[in-house]
Amino acid sequence: MNDRDFNLKNCRPIISTARITDDMSFDERFQNITLRPIVKQQHDLFVLVFKNYIAKHKNVFYDLSLEKRLDYIENTVHKDMKFRNSVKGMIIGLFTLEEYELYITNSSSLNKRMMNIVKERLLSSIQVFERPEVLTAV
């Protein structure tokens, strides 16, 4: 393992709830060993990126009901190709060389898993996506 790969793996958070078993599919194993730790590590960046996305789209997010905000996040993650590609780059850039070689063998399926994990993390952080002036007024 080269220095880059070692350093990348060494700085990832450990997810104690991630289960690895012999009967797991390749995709599920890759998700639990590689994707989940990277997405957790990048969480704060994804929050900031999504806040910037809201601002770049005229802050319409803030005028939506909670249900519509959840839909907005889901649609952004799944349908906005520029946003998706940006997020994928933030994740893939933290792959080791070996992980990248594994990723390209089944990238379509792994991309779906990747985006679902990011979507779930953003949805679970919905409270941080409040209008900025509301947060400073308290």
Fold and architecture overview:
This protein has one domain. It contains eight helices and no strands. Helix 2 packs across helix 7. It is elongated and about 50 Å long. The protein has 138 residues and is mostly helical. The relative contact order is 0.16. The protein is 69% helix and 0% strand. The longest helix has 18 residues.
Radius of gyration: 16 Å
**Given the C-alpha coordinates, what overall shape results?**
elongated
Q: Please summarize the sheet with the most strands.
A: none
Helix content range of the residues, please?
55-70%
| Low-confidence residue ranges | none
Give the integer mean of the pLDDT values.
94
Q: Termini separation (Å)?
A: 50 Å
The DSSP helix count reads: 8
Order of helices and strands: HHHHHHHH
Percentage beta strand: under 5%
Overall strand count? 0
How many structural domains does the protein architecture include? Answer: 1
State the secondary-structure class: mainly alpha
List keywords for this structure.
single chain; 138 residues; mainly alpha; 69% helix; 0% strand; elongated
Can I get a quick summary?
With 138 residues, the chain is mainly α.
Compile the SSE list and pairings:
Layout: H1 3-10, H2 26-41, H3 43-56, H4 66-79, H5 81-92, H6 97-103, H7 107-124, H8 132-137
